[in-house]
């Protein structure tokens, strides 16, 4: 069995009096796309920096692609786009990529490097100095840097923070193509829709701890059914005990859509008049807010 | 080794492409042309001087100008060394680099090598140009030009190593300012120590000795001056050499040179340790 792309256990980091990261453990499998979610200050960036040896953990262990995190070689096939993306302003975009392939110890032909710039929409800016780039272009360059040394794991910290809607769509396509090529991705993003669309699994951090984690199906498994009813009898009310009521609308949590016809038949049998039945799904956003607001940490 | 050389090359390219190099070049050309004019005046105005006296004047002014050059080199490299670690961590440039499969010690060593090549290259080129100017204008040629330039380069290396250590612990600007400040303070302490020696006051003399041990820039500078002076001058004008800031009475000892080398290695190792432990 191959080792996972990322394995961490019991990561802790304290900054003066604030516990930034507290006992964080999770895994990113090979070729898996995992989203790291959580509110500001939840410790996401600190966790990412500890994975990459940029910040020294107070406790805990990291393994990247089968090597211990304290060994620099563990990062040979790792690409990283930092949240604070800045590249040597006195170099050209092409020179930045060449520098990074050299530092990674991988020989990547110039044509492939150029292709990488093309992938992020900077093909015609290869010879321009980075100092003259806008923030969005620097972030695009950062993506190219993360991808240039043929990574098996890509860590992206807020990869779309400076991008316009088209740029965001490009990043989404890029992430999907990475998944197709079996490149593992750890994605920290505030854009929940983005995460929901591309991630296989999600780890939710809050106050430095893992508040929840699992596949999207596991986290969002719970569905709901909105029913507009009148003529509620006591027996019907007992049947809808789990529902929340908003006027004449009842929101009932259900686990399977197959339950819907039975529930409706039962209600009709009890003399309830059914005006509308709308099955719905809890979005990742609702689930995230639920967890963060101290709802039901799983 | 690959990482060390890559980073050294990157540092050199940074020095070449940033404004530091242009400012250095302008300052140097200014200083060299001023000195060319000055030396030609010495020759023209002091026609009545004996050969010994004009040699003395040339050696003195040469040392003065060389001090100016060493100051430019010190300022230039200290302000290059400062941003290189602290500045890159602050701006985020360090993040993508250090997340590569590199040991931080090698990155730091590469930066140091790049800065050493830059500083030493500057001293060699500007210093040699200065010596040629003096030769052409006054006919004076120092007794040990290569040793003198090497000691000047060593002085620059000492200061930039200190700048590198400071930049692993404090902010970029502060590290440049502190390094240059310490450089100036040691030079003044050296002058005070020289006066103490001239006056026969041991405790004042000790100020110079202690400061030259703590930061060897001034000691190396005095050794460099010695190499630019004609040896006959010391016997001929022995009184003038006592406590003079731009003349050196005693040669450097081997032990002092060894100490300077050990000092640089120690400070570099300390910088490596501090950089290793630093969160970026």
Overview of this protein structure:
- The complex is a heterodimer of chains A (298) and B (280).
- Chain A is an alpha/beta fold and 298 residues long.
- Chain A has helices at residues 44-51, 93-104, 110-119, 135-148, 165-180, 192-198, 216-220, 234-239, 259-269, 284-292; strands at residues 6-15, 18-28, 33-37, 59-64, 67-68, 78-81, 153-157, 184-188, 201-206, 209-215, 223-230, 244-246, 249-254, 273-281.
- Helix content of chain A is 33%, strand content 29%.
- In chain A, the strands form three sheets. In chain A, strands 6-7-8-3-9-10 form a six-stranded mixed beta sheet, sandwiched between helices. A four-stranded antiparallel beta sheet of chain A has the order 2-1-4-5, covered by helices on one side.
- The longest helix of chain A has 16 residues, at 165-180.
- By secondary structure, chain B is mostly helical.
- Chain B has one domain (2-277).
- Helices cover 83% and strands 0% of the residues of chain B.
- Chain B has helices at 2-17, 19-45, 51-91, 93-98, 104-138, 145-169, 172-199, 202-214, 217-228, 231-236, 254-277.
- In chain B, α3 runs antiparallel to α5 (104-138) and α5 (104-138) runs antiparallel to α6 (145-169).
- The chains are: A alpha/beta (298), B mainly alpha (280).
Characterize this entry briefly.
With 298 residues, chain A is α/β, with parallel strands linked by helices. Chain A has helices spanning 44-51, 93-104, 110-119, 135-148, 165-180, 192-198, 216-220, 234-239, 259-269, 284-292, and strands at 6-15, 18-28, 33-37, 59-64, 67-68, 78-81, 153-157, 184-188, 201-206, 209-215, 223-230, 244-246, 249-254, 273-281.
